[in-house]
Specification:
The complex is a heterodimer. Chain A has two domains: 66 residues, no CATH class; 202 residues, MetI-like fold (Orthogonal Bundle), CATH 1.10.3720.10. The longest helix of chain A has 31 residues. Chain A contains 15 helices and no strands. By secondary structure, chain A is mostly helical. Chain B is mostly helical. Chain B has one domain: MetI-like (MetI-like fold). Chain B is globular, with a radius of gyration of 23 Å. A two-stranded antiparallel sheet of chain B has the order 1-2. The chains are: A mainly alpha, B mainly alpha. Chains A and B meet through helix 2, helix 5, helix 6, helix 7 and helix 8 of A and helix 1, helix 3, helix 4, helix 5 and helix 7 of B.
């Protein structure tokens, strides 16, 4: 198809068009991030220079400032890390067995549970935050790691279950039938036969759960406080009504987003699957 | 059943019970700034919405915001996917560039745009308009521009998603159909209209619904970029429910607003479930 295309008169034009499209894509979508990256190495004076300076003497002062002293975001990175890791670990412990059950076991209620899990994933966070706030306030759970981690499960668990189901469904049914015929028992079959097959799926799911929890903002800003203050909330340290510290904000943002950028690029092949979870086949296939 | 029960229990505790509690609160007078007013309100909060111009404004903005962002994402995403599909080289670079916005936290995206991209005089957009002699604008300070700005921010962050999904879908289309169409002298537009579009329709429907869900629960980026302002120019239902509950401390009315948002979202997800089953 492409060989016949190149001999046609419109081929040159088409190539030009493609090149322009590619340039626009990269420029529009990557440049703001790259610009933030550059800004994080500028002095505040270079940031506000007109005309904008492309060549400047890079400085690490901003990074030093957001890692030491008063405006350090290291405690916030730690906060994010604790909440995110705890939430991810607990989510996976609950989600993997549940997804297996939903993908495999013959249950009359399977459709219903499937819709239930999907519906919980669709709930807008703003709707849930009000009851969370009232309840956590009553039981003293505001600004505690246990309280906020529990709340994070509300969005990470349905997502993880749905994503894991698609991986469990790819495991051939015959494999576990064979194991069951050898009287291996359900739990042993799951542990020794099925789980090794979905190792990749577990890794991908863990990555996405981590990513979503790391980027969470609304729950963190309302339910957190001085003890639990993830980086997404700490970004506001550098913005006030009077003055915005652009360079510091950029440096802090780069540090805060470094984990998700690295993880996202590493998992780029799986990103489409992770983002379309719940919408691609899965669920009631069997 | 033993395997499923713990997860379902967690979901019931963290989502369903709070939901019931939210519904209950929406029937109460629960205003922390007027604590003496507490008590059962019945449908009072919902009736109050009828004559609340700020509610109708936010509902209207939610529809505009969701409609335009989703349409833009699909149209731009599909157009670029069609162009990039035939690219012999360089798809890897594009993929990497486009994954960046998706993985960034929406609140960081909002703050980045508010400062580096849209701020008057020194933002990237103003650098361009100033260089072109078009002057400088207060992109987030002017009520009309602010709405366009928050729509652009959301579109910027999520178009790559539509692009990647549609590109993946286009790549699986059978080439022999196009060969046959070419032999029949079908024009490029005809090939697109009568072959490509019907074949990628399921993918488009899926993208539209998923993007609607995200747009309906969008919060952090607008909160960070404009805070719903200036005034209530970018105050979609989400922001209004948040401000009512946590700035004005009127949790009863905020709950009722959240219930409205919730019904809209559940309606869309019900539609999605129907479509999944139909396939």
């Amino acid at each position: 198809m492409s060989s016949t295309r190149l001999t046609r008169p419109g081929a040159a034009l088409r190539r030009l068009l493609m090149f322009c499209a590619a340039a626009v894509l990269v420029l529009v979508w990557a440049f703001p991030v790259f610009w933030g990256f550059l800004t994080s190495f500028k002095t505040e004076r270079d940031v506000l220079a007109w005309p904008p300076v492309l060549f400047f003497t890079p400085t690490l002062d901003n990074y030093r400032a957001v890692m030491q002293g008063n405006s350090s975001i290291l405690p916030n990175l730690w906060s994010s890390f604790v909440v995110t890791s705890l939430a991810t670990l607990i989510t996976m412990l609950f989600a993997v067995p549940a997804a297996y059950a939903m993908a495999r076991l013959r249950m009359r209620l399977k459709r219903t549970t499937g819709f239930y899990v999907l519906a919980t994933q669709m709930l807008p966070p703003v709707g849930l935050i009000i009851p969370y706030y009232i309840v956590l306030q009553k039981i003293g759970g505001l600004d505690t790691y246990s309280g906020i981690t529990a709340i994070y499960l509300s969005f990470s668990l349905p997502f993880a279950i749905w994503l894991m189901i698609t991986y469990f469904e790819d495991v051939p049914f015959e494999m576990e039938e064979a194991a069951l015929l050898d009287r291996a028992g359900r739990m042993r079959t799951l542990w020794y036969v099925i789980l090794p097959q979905v190792r990749g799926g577990i890794a991908v799911t863990t990555i996405f759960v981590f990513l979503n929890a790391w980027n969470e903002f609304l729950f963190a800003v309302v339910l957190g406080g001085n003890t639990v203050r993830p980086v997404t909330v700490a970004m506001y340290n550098f913005i006030s009504v009077e003055q915005t510290q652009w360079a510091l904000l950029s440096a802090a943002a780069m540090l805060a987003m470094a984990p998700v950028i690295v993880i996202g690029l590493a998992a780029q092949r799986h990103i489409v699957k992770g983002l379309t979870v719940g919408a691609v086949k899965g669920g009631g296939r069997r | 059943m033993l395997l499923l029960a713990p997860a379902l229990l967690v979901l019931i505790i963290t989502t369903t019970i709070p939901l019931v509690y939210l519904a209950w609160n929406s029937l109460q007078n629960l205003n922390f700034s007027m604590p003496w007013m507490r008590g059962f309100a019945g449908l009072g909060n919902y009736i109050a919405m009828g004559s609340d111009p700020r509610f109708w404004n936010s509902l209207w903005l939610t529809i505009i915001y969701t409609g335009t962002t989703v349409t833009l994402q699909v149209v731009i995403g599909l157009a670029f996917a069609l162009l990039v599909l035939r690219m012999p080289r360089g798809q890897g670079v594009i993929r990497v560039a486009l994954i960046l916005p998706i993985v960034l936290a929406p609140v960081v995206v909002g703050l980045f745009w508010r400062t580096l991209v849209l701020s008057p005089d020194f933002g990237l957009v103003d650098l361009v308009t100033r260089a072109l002699g078009l002057g400088s604008y207060n992109w987030l300070g002017d009520p009309q521009l602010a709405l366009i700005s928050v729509i652009s921010i959301h579109t910027w962050q999520w178009t790559p998603f539509a692009f990647l999904v549609l590109l993946a879908s286009l790549a699986t289309l059978p080439p022999d159909v196009y060969e046959a169409a070419r032999l029949d002298r079908a024009s490029a537009w005809q090939r697109f209209r009568y072959i490509t579009l019907p074949l990628v329709r399921p993918a488009i429907v899926m993208v539209v619904i998923l993007r609607m869900m995200t747009a309906l629960s969008a919060f952090a980026a607008i909160y960070a970029a404009s805070g719903g302002g200036p005034g209530s120019a970018t105050e979609i239902l989400n922001l209004y429910a948040y401000r009512t509950s946590f700035v004005e401390l009127n949790l009863g009315y905020g709950s009722a607003l959240a219930m409205v948002l919730l019904s809209i979202t559940l309606g869309v997800s019900w539609l999605m479930f129907r479509l999944r089953r139909a396939r």
